[in-house]
Fold this sequence. Notes:
This protein is α+β, with helices and mostly antiparallel strands.
Amino acid sequence: MKRGIVALIVSLLLFLPLVTGATMKCPSRAPADKVVCRLEGNGTGKLYLKSVDGIPPRGYLITIRDSKGYKHSINDEWDTFELPANISFSIRWILSGIKDHYFDFVPDWVLFNKKHTFMFVFIGENGTQKTFDVRVYVEGKPNWAELEDNLIISLIASFLTGFVALGLLLLATWGGKRKNKSLTYKFAVLSGLLLILLMAEFYFLGPNTFGLLYYYFGTGKSLYGDIVFGLSIWVVLILVTILLWGYYIIPLQLSSVAYNKSLSKLKHQRTYPLFGLSWALFPFLFIYPLSKLETLLLIVGFFILATRPALSKVRLELVLLVNLAIAGFLMLKYRPDFAFVAFLIVLLFVMYFIQKKCFKRFTAEKERLIAEIEEKVAKIEGAGR
C-alpha cells in the first residue's frame, strides 16, 4: 500500500510543472537601454513586472528567450515559457513610462545613475509564485541639451514676464486712481499675457526644478516620494510667484474697488489666508486617485470654501502649521529624500512670510484709502453747508 502511494506521488511530480529552485540573476550595473538577466530553475510559467521602486509600471516589454525560442511579456499579456531562460528589457523604457505619468516634461536621464529596484513575479502553470527583487544600478549619460532647451525657453519667458510685469506696474502707478476704460482694458490684456507667460515659464522650468533636484539628490528607493514632493514644490513655487505679484498690485486692486465701486464695497473687501493651503490638493490626488470631473469639483469646491468671508480671519500661523503638518504626513507616508523635504519646508515658510507681507500691505492700504475717501466726503459735505 505504501509503495503504491509513493509511486503515485512520484508520478504526479513527473507530470506537474513545478517551479523548483527558481533564481533570477541580473548584473549589478547595466546600461539604460538594455539589461539581460538569467532566470534559472525548472518548470514552466509566465513572468510579469509588478513594480519599480514600489511603483506599478505604466507600460513595459520584456523579451524572454528559452530553449524553444523567443517569448514576450507585455503589460498584462504574458507568454508561457520554460526555465531556464534569458530575460532582457529596456530600463529606459520602463522608467520613462513611470516618469511620463507624473512629469512628462522631465528628461528620462534624470532617473539614471541610480540603483532602482525591479520586482518580478514568476507564476508557474500549477499556480505557484516566485517573487524576485532585482536591484540594478542604471548607467546613462545626461543629455544636457534637453534641459538647456527648456532652460532657454524658461529664461525667455522669465524675461518677457518681467517686462510685462514692469509695464503693468508702471500702468498701475500712473493710472491707479483714474477712471479710464482704455486703461482698464490695457491692464486686463497685459494681465492675461502675464498669466500665459507665467504658465509657460513654469511648464518649461519643471525639468530644471524637479529634474535637477532628483538627479543630484534623489535615490531610486524614494522615487515615488520624490515625485509627490517634486509636484508639491512645483505648485508652491507657482503660488509664491502669484503672491509676489499680488503684493505689488494690492494698491491697484483696492483703488479700483474704492473709486470704481463704493466705499462700502471697500470696507467689506477681504483677503484670504487659506489660499496658502491650495498646494495640498495636488499631493492629495496622489493619495486618493479621482476622475477628472471629481478632481475639478474638488479644486473648485476648495477655492469656493477658501474665499468665504467667514474664513478671512483665519490666522496665517495656523495655515503654516497645517501646511507643515501636511508636509510631515506626506513625508511619513512616502519617505522622500531629505533634499525634497527640506526644499518644500523652506518654500512653505517663504510663502508664509510673503503672505504675511501681503496682509500687512492690504490692511494698511485699505485703511489709507478709507481715511482718504472719508476725508474727501467730509470736505464735500462741509462745502455744501
